[in-house]
Amino acid sequence: MSLDIRRILEILPHRYPFLLVDRIVEIEPRKRVVGIKNVTINEPFFQGHFPGNPVMPGVLILEAMGQVGAVLFLNDEEDMAGKFVYFAGADKVRFRRPVVPGDQLRCELEVLRVRSRSCQVLGRATVDGELAAEATLFSVLVEIPEVGAEG
């Protein structure tokens, strides 16, 4: 099963310039997901990271992996309607190669643990089959706050 950008926009609250997933190419509910981010020179972060030597910031690679993981959980409408997935932490983070304009970042996430309000996934981001980053990511599931609600 794959998901196009229209479905991703229905699932995730993120929008440009912070939407970091263009397509879901594989999804096995509650098990694994593979998403694609096409990295272009038009990304706003390349203006300052780094002029003359554009490199995608590592934290945004982690964010891309997190967004792909969020699609995995939020795509299951029965269980996840009315919920957000918030990034809660990362362990064993390693960056192996720079991600630059023209790269296609492939984010593969495998579920390690799911609880009622949290999840843990193993994420690997690759470019042309070469490992760019890896991490264990933690997220929490929360209710979407009502618009205008005070907190």
Write up what this structure looks like.
The chain has one domain (5-143): Roll (Thiol Ester Dehydrase, Chain A). The chain has three helices and six strands; from the N terminus they run αββααββββ. It has helices at residues 5-11, 58-74, 77-80, and strands at 23-28, 32-38, 83-95, 104-114, 118-127, 130-143. The chain has a six-stranded antiparallel β-sheet, covered by helices on one side. A hairpin with a 3-residue loop joins strand 4 and strand 5.
Short overview:
The protein has 3 helices and 6 strands, in the order H-E-E-H-H-E-E-E-E. By secondary structure, it is α+β, with helices and mostly antiparallel strands.
CATH superfamily: Hotdog Thioesterase
Give start-end ranges of low-pLDDT stretches: none
Shape: globular
Report the CATH C-level class: Alpha Beta
CATH topology, what is it called? Thiol Ester Dehydrase, Chain A
**What is the ordering of alpha helices and beta strands?**
HEEHHEEEE
Strand share of the residues? 35-45%
Strands of the biggest beta sheet: in what spatial order? Answer: 1-2-4-5-6-3
Number of domains: 1
How is the biggest beta sheet arranged? 6 strands, antiparallel
Mean pLDDT: 93
Distance between the termini: 38 Å
Structural class given helices, strands, pairing? Answer: alpha+beta
Examine the secondary-structure arrangement and name the CATH architecture: Roll
**Helical residue percent band:** 10-25%
The number of helical runs is: 3
Number of strands: 6
* Rg computed from alpha carbons, rounded to a whole number of angstroms: 15 Å
